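Lab channel / #folding
Pinned by the channel admin:
"Please post every new chain as: sequence first, then the structure tokens as a reply. Keep commentary short and put observations after the output so the thread stays searchable."

First post following the new format, from NK:
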Amino acid sequence: MMPLDRSLPRYTSVAIALHWIMALGILILSILGLAMVHGEWLPGRLFQLYQLHKSIGITILLLAALRLAWRVVHRPPPLPDSMPAFERTAAAGAHLALYTMLFAVPLTGWALVSASVFSIPTVLYGLIAWPDLPVLPGLPNKGRVEGLLKLVHAYGAYVLIAAVVVHATAAVRHHVILRDDVLARMLPNLRSRGLDASTRNPDGQSR
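Reply from TO:
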């Protein structure tokens, strides 16, 4: 097997790590959200699920901010020259929509918790007290605001899931059908590292 071509433009290691950690977090949040809404749980267990859901949601929000800042400072690798202009425009639009939802969904969830009539504190992973957003806890009509935010958060989550599915489908299409490096540049470079190690002698010299 030939080693991966290291000359290909790739995302930085930080961007790759943030990408896959956030992808895992979104998957877990989606499962938790569906379980909380459609499952039958004892009150204590449901409370734990909500706290975990809130903890991961805030983590995703913070990671999204970090990832956006990193993207501004470290420009992503260019798209393949063979990609048509309309696909480039579509890719830019899809990334914009994805980033928008990565902020919008956790923020609406945070607002929902802040406006809740139950006023249950958020403690991230059972360790760190997280504050409510300002103004919302003191609203006189918290019940109506909470109901509206619940709808916005739920439908926003579905939009985010749809955006992730479209994003993943496009990446697989590039890898399987178009056979370019769009997906490969976001994959951890484990294969090439393993090959580098296997092509060295025990004394550290290359074969």
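NK: Residues 13-190 form a domain with the Fumarate Reductase Cytochrome B subunit fold (CATH 1.20.950.20).
TO: also worth noting, Confidence is low (pLDDT under 50) at residues 1-6, 192-207.
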